[in-house]
Write a structure and sequence with these properties.
With 356 residues, this protein is an alpha/beta fold. Helix content is 50%, strand content 7%. It has 15 helices and five strands. It has a five-stranded parallel β-sheet, sandwiched between helices. Strand 3, helix 5 and strand 4 (159-165) form a beta-alpha-beta unit.
Length: 356
Amino acid sequence: MSNFESIIGQDHPLRILNTLIKKGTIPNALLFTGIDGVGKLTAASTFAMACNCMGTSAQDVLCDSKGKKASSNQPAITNPCGLCKSCKKIMSGNHPDIILVKPTGFFLKIDQIRGLCQTLAMKPYEARLRVVIISDAQAMNLEAGNALLKILEEPPKRTILILTCTHPSELLPTIVSRCHPIRFSPISRDNLTEMLVGKQGLSREKAEVIAASAGGSYARSLRMKEKNWDQRRNWLLTATGLHSSVFFPKSIGSLLALAEKLSKNKETLTEALDIIKSWLRDAVIGRYLPEKIINTDLTEKILTASEKLSPAALLEKIEAVEKTQKNIRGNANLRLAAESLLIQLAFKKQTPSDIT
């Protein structure tokens, strides 16, 4: 990807970035927020290319320490050429002044920020505007956050920091207050479908199902494709009894065995809970708005299922799934959480007497 047009479904944030470049009013720090897989890192890299592209008649795009325009020259275009020496270095990850900092394991550590401080104490090697991209900034612990705050309070010249995270509330308020926020929206279902068909070669039917279940994240849709998500979904729905629309008609022994299998890996269990909740949600929606069903390839079975339980009973089951998801995020025992949920889902009230 070498230009902003290649970033799909983010017209508003890209318009802001283009305006900042055109007007020469690039602030010292930007905060890109939004769910994983909507183009935040790609936009950050493209922005760095646009600020340093030699194909823009080599105008200076500089910021002083207060983020004010330091040159009257403005780029003739805001899209990087992708062909010049600077663009190629950035695309290959070999530009000495475009720095990516990301978590090692689960955290961004204090030593990483200290190392960044040492680097920023020196002038850029060759870039008109040095760009530091801090990915998943919410992974900083308090020490790392305070160290970064010192950089933001006294930003180096010719340097811009771009932080990415899901939501501003994940960061220290003092860090957020020193950044210009730009929110990236979930990618629309239609755009995701076209991307999966055009870039990944999926059939339209399969692309539509994955796009509907990916929650607006292209990265997640790719993971679903690579893992044969639809096959895993169908297996789980069969194992739980949801696929046959009878809702967990399993013995305690079989439920415990399924819980053991799902809980061997946190990612596997998390994915399973998302699938179950999506199915239950569709069963609720199917009664009133069948066109909003997510698992579109299973519409007929979902409509049959929606007749077997009242909306109140379905919502009660969804609440049980969400409570389990919250417990897992709080590091609850995976096996106990899975066992408890499956038993609750199997034996919660299932009579259709309150169907309206």
